[in-house]
Structures are given as C-alpha cells and as structure tokens.
Amino acid sequence: MALETADLELAGLRLDIAGQVEADATAPAGSVATVTLSRPRRRNAMTPGMWRGLARIGGELPPQVRVVVITGEGPSFSAGIDLRLFSAEGAPGEETPPDPRSAGFDEWIAGCQAGYTWLRRPDIVSIAAVRGHAIGAGFQLALACDLRVLAEDAKLCMKEPALGLVPDLTGTKPLVDIVGLPRALEMCLTARTVDAAEAARLGLAEIVVPTSDLHAAVADLTAALLATDPATARATKRLLSLAPGHTLAEQAAAERRMQSELQTERLGPLPPR
Ligand code: ACO
Prior knowledge:
The chain has helices at 5-10, 48-59, 105-117, 137-144, 172-179, 181-190, 196-202, 214-226, 230-242, 248-267; strands at residues 13-18, 32-37, 67-72, 125-130, 133-135, 147-151, 155-157, 193-195, 207-209. The chain has 273 residues and is α/β, with parallel strands linked by helices. It has 2 domains: 5-226, 2-enoyl-CoA Hydratase, Chain A, domain 1 (Alpha-Beta Complex); 230-267. The strands form 2 sheets. It has a 6-stranded mixed sheet, sandwiched between helices. A 3-stranded mixed sheet has the order 5-7-8. Helix 3 (105-117) links the parallel strand 3 and strand 4. Helix 5 (172-179) crosses helix 6 and helix 9 (230-242) runs antiparallel to helix 10. The longest helix is centred in the last third of the chain and has 20 residues, at 248-267.
C-alpha cells in the first residue's frame, strides 16, 4: 500500500487510523482517521510535498473511515507555506515551484489544491482541531474541513495578500460562504488575525474550548457524528452541500429525491404488484 509511514513522515505528516474514539468505545474499528501536521519545530509550515501527502491520504483512505480529524503537533496548527520556498535556496528536499508565468503553473497548483479538496467528500466528515496559529495555507486547510474546533488560543489569519499572493488553496469559497463577502474582504486585505472568540462569532468555529480540552472536545464531537447511521450521514451531507447553489424549489426537489434514494437503498426496490 502506498500510504507508507516513512513517505508520510518525509512529507511532515502522520496518519493514525483509530479503532475507537475515547468518548465512544463502541465506534467501529477504523472509523476515525487523524492526520497530524508534524513539523512542530517549524510550526508545521507546509510544503508542496505535504500537500501531495495530504492528497495521497485522501485518495487511499480506507472505506470504513467516516471522520477525519486534521490537527497540528506542537503549539501551532500551521504557520502556512514554508517561507523558505520563496528563497533562492528553497526548502530542503522540496521541489521548486514552477514559474507562475509558465504553462505548467495551473496544473501544479491544482495538484497542491488536491490536498485540500478531498476533505469535503460526502463519505467523510472532516474536523480541523486548531490550537495556536493557523496562517495562510494553514488557515485554508482549516477552512477546507467541514467543521472547526478551536482552542481558546487559536489565531486565524489569511496572510497571503500581505505577501503579494492571492489565497489559492481553496480557502476563498468557504471563507466567503461562512463570513460573507464584506467580512472576507476585510479579513483578507488587512491580513489581520482573528482570535477564537471572534472566530466563533463569525461562524468560523463550531466549538471553542480551553486548550487543554481540545482533544476531548474533538473526541466527543467525533463520537456524536459516528452515532448517525453511515448512509444517512452521507446522504445528509450531500443534500446540505447542494443547498447554497439551489433555489428553495430545487432544494425541496433534492430533499424528495434523496429521501427516496436513501429509503430505497435501505428497503430494496418495491416488489412487483
Ligand atoms: N516557514 C518556514 N519556517 C517557519 C514558518 C514558515 N511559514 N513559520 C515559522 N517558521 C520557523 C521559524 O523560522 C522558526 O525557526 P527557527 O527556530 O529555526 O528560528 C520556528 O519556525 C519557530 O518560529 P517562531 O517565529 O520562533 O515561533 P513563534 O511561536 O514565536 O511564532 C508564528 C509563530 C506566529 C507562526 C511565526 O513563526 C510566523 O509569523 N511565521 C510566518 C507565518 C507566515 O507568514 N506564513 C506564510 C503565510 S502565506 C501562505 O501560507 C501562502
């Protein structure tokens, strides 16, 4: 299997697929995957290799996994892109990003974005467990998750515009969807830091807890999510994800269709008369 621990370690990642979560010893084996950004001495700064590692985890996740927790080792969730990538020397062991004017640039960023997009898949619920800084690419990773549980010391910042970059790791849509265009514009163009209390007010955190309680809060949430029947959870996530792009009539039709599909899957087709 390609998800070799050594490969992931090289990419600064750790993957633990747990039998059970502490808060619910009845959770089926292997239903929770915890992905840890594991470069604490660099505050979990991120590299293209790490984004590719994340994409690989998404692509090879065992089918029994229903909840994915993304977290960071040490005091910060992630300090964003490894700034050494912008230096002449680059970051050790990392590919140099292609010239933005070159034909391959679009495809290269798409490959990096693939590390983020799988977290919205309907067969899983993803949770970002954030303590300390989540900056730039790190904030976008938290935004790529379905849910965010923040420690009280969490600090969110979309730093890219201050560095002459646009945020390009799939964070702009969830940010605008959650906080609205004016607040997203203000946050991005000032590149200011949003603390956990404000993040909760803006809807950027579902839960805020004391830092020492972060792990327990995520375990409780995970257990509660796993209590829902898997097919129902999958169908409900798909249905809710359609709502922002639908009119009321379209969404009502989607509700009818998906209820019928879910119950047919459960009961089998109608017997012939
Ligand atoms: N890239 C590379 N190395 C980093 C990064 C980074 N993004 N962030 C921190 N580090 C390194 C530091 O250079 C330092 O290394 P050293 O011990 O060899 O000197 C080590 O991690 C610890 O960093 P400190 O700054 O000492 O830690 P502190 O806890 O005081 O501050 C903070 C943490 C706020 C995250 C600070 O390091 C910081 O501002 N980092 C840069 C954030 C940034 O601008 N990221 C890019 C955003 S844009 C994008 O992601 C596309």
